[in-house]
Amino acid sequence: SDNRAVLIENKIYAMVNNPLADYTDYLDCRILDGRAKHKLLLTVFPTGEGSEWNFVNLTYSKFVDEIRSLLGHYLFGADTRYLTMFLDFLSTLENLRRGTRMDQEFVKFLAKRDDDIRNLFNDLKSFRIEIREKVLELRTLIDTSQHETVEVQDLWRGDTASMSDTLYHNIRVSEDLLVGVDTRLNPQGWQIQIFARSKGSTLKLKELLKRLEIPFEERERFIHPAQFDYDENLDRISPVLQDIVNKLATSQENEA
């Protein structure tokens, strides 16, 4: 304009690798007509790049917010055909950030450490295979064949990124009390969790554990105090779990 010279470097998904020093030199040294000078770096994500040449970062989201806040002054005089296209254009700009959710610095980090990350994923895959094998082996050591009240003995892992694996038992203690016993393995080690699968039965389970002399620590679930390292010999873990399963599975018989 007559009063201002505005230099805009526009970036959507590309890296900022432009000769910003040359742009600055052109603006500062060749435009000598007294106009106020502004240097803007327009990006999807906030960045500090260009600050050494006094570029001010402006994100698309803030830019669009400012435009929308001024729209009301121009709506009545606008051509509806162009207004429709303009609003659609603003929506497209707003969707840029939704379309790329990853911070660009993180994307750069991934590009630099590609081999390390690939090796990490391979190691994680091997780890997940190993913990599944350990849990499978533990299942072979727990005998539920004599207990009709053990309704389920199976494995559970959760989502594909899970760093744990679980051997779980569902034990029908009574008509209104189904007890879950989760023996979970993760990098921190083994943990045995006991909980009521039947709604409103937590207090009843707590009293049952006391009566059966099954020790526990009360948290979100009842946690058996025996803690085992990741590489613990399964011959030390299986008797503890077998004892819990046996006591719960025969609790009705004991009452009779």
| SSE string, helices as H and strands as E | EHEEHHHHEEEEHEEHH
| Share in helix | 40-55%
**Annotation, overall tally of beta strands:** 9
- Average pLDDT rating: 89
**Low-confidence runs (pLDDT<50, min 5 residues)?**
none
Estimate the strand proportion: 15-25%
The secondary-structure class comes to alpha+beta
| Rg estimate, integer Å | 32 Å
Largest sheet entry? 6 strands, antiparallel
Shape estimate? elongated
Multimeric status of the protein: single chain
Distance between the termini: 95 Å
Folded structure, characterized:
The protein is of the alpha+beta class. The protein is 43% helix and 23% strand. It contains eight helices and nine strands. The strands form two sheets. It has a six-stranded antiparallel sheet. A three-stranded parallel sheet has the order 1-2-3. The chain is elongated, with a radius of gyration of 32 Å.
Summed up:
The chain is of the alpha+beta class.
Observed structural traits:
256 residues, alpha+beta, 9 strands
Secondary structure elements and their pairing?
Blueprint lengths: L3 E7 L9 H11 L5 E8 L12 E4 H12 L8 H20 L4 H9 L1 H28 L8 E7 L8 E10 L2 E10 L2 E8 L5 H10 L5 E2 L3 E2 L10 H16 L1 H5 L1
Parallel strand pairs: 1-2, 2-3
Antiparallel strand pairs: 4-5, 5-6, 6-7, 7-9, 8-9
Helix pairs in contact: 2-3, 5-7
